[in-house]
Amino acid sequence: MIVYRLAAKQYINDFTGTGAKLFGGRWNPVGHGCIYTSEHISLALLEKFVHANHKENMERIALLRIEIPDDPNLIFNTEEKLLKKSWADDITYSQWLGEQILGDLSIVAFTVPSAIVPSERNVILNPAAAEFKQVKFLPPVDFTTDFRLLSKLLS
To answer: Whole-structure pTM over 0.85, yes or no?
Structure first.
């Protein structure tokens, strides 16, 4: 499985999940490191955009392609139908669930629906997993897109 991560150039090579550990996220509480990725570059862009405070946060970013082994024992697929109906509006719930999954060190990654595009999936990597060394990080590349859209939406 290939997944994509968009991040500020200065943080793109952090494979420890430090940012998520320090600040928490939808699927992890503070204190639990992980790496947020998406199954599609376009979803990674939307996820990055929704968290950007200023246009500048979107201008100096890089794209990282990540290969996760296609081993069903290493990847947990969170089924949306089993999630609490209001999961997208209840960050306490999604963080609790993510904490449970991140605590299972046999799971290298878990997939979750995107709150932005629920029919698409984000993939959360667990750097503390026993087999995390099987994940392959390809060299990052500068990310470019047509920023006209972003300039209309961000100040």
So the answer is: yes
